[in-house]
Design goal:
The complex is a heterodimer. Chain A is mainly beta. Helices cover about 0% and strands about 50% of the residues of chain A. In chain B, a hairpin with a 3-residue loop joins strand 6 and strand 7.
Chain lengths: ~110, ~110
Amino acid sequence: EAGVTQFPSHSVIEKGQTVTLRCDPISGHDNLYWYRRVMGKEIKFLLHFVKESKQDESGMPNNRFLAERTGGTYSTLKVQPAELEDSGVYFCASSLGDRIGYTFGSGTRLTVV
Amino acid sequence: GESVGLHLPTLSVQEGDNSIINCAYSNSASDYFIWYKQESGKGPQFIIDIRSNMDKRQGQRVTVLLNKTVKHLSLQIAATQPGDSAVYFCAENPYGGSQGNLIFGKGTKLSVKP
């Protein structure tokens, strides 16, 4: 089966601009997660979708971040406006039902300059 | 706050030796733990998991040990190979079950010398 796909793999934008990250989970996976890793720090949870609904968004840093999952398939994470501290690697993961363990995508490396 | 941490940030071993990567957790309510391996340019890859009702679980060349008394988790890799070179993360789920968000440690970089 195809894995979790993230696009783009890298993005360099200026402070104040908008960036949209996309995640295509494994087909049929109802759970979709966003995580991010800021340089030198732990991988931190951002939010969790079950199908198209936000199950838990307690990790979203502020209202500059907006995640959507239209139709319960792919998801987008928009950062608007981007700030320097948003730089890091954003990971998406998906899983099916109560199956143990996630499958992660390769991540999007975001650099805000 | 509650967190998962790692004792050693880097570990260098000789090819063929066994590797042990350690992790401490602070949330006694955590009941599910996972080890991930992350190679350069890739996302975290599931290696092995363990539930809190177990002390040990074995996979292919890997063993996870859980000591709930001291809140310690370890990953043992037997006969370490160059392909094992990566950053290893432990993660815990303090919210019960196998779903929900995970709390990750900072990671240990394993380097295997040929």
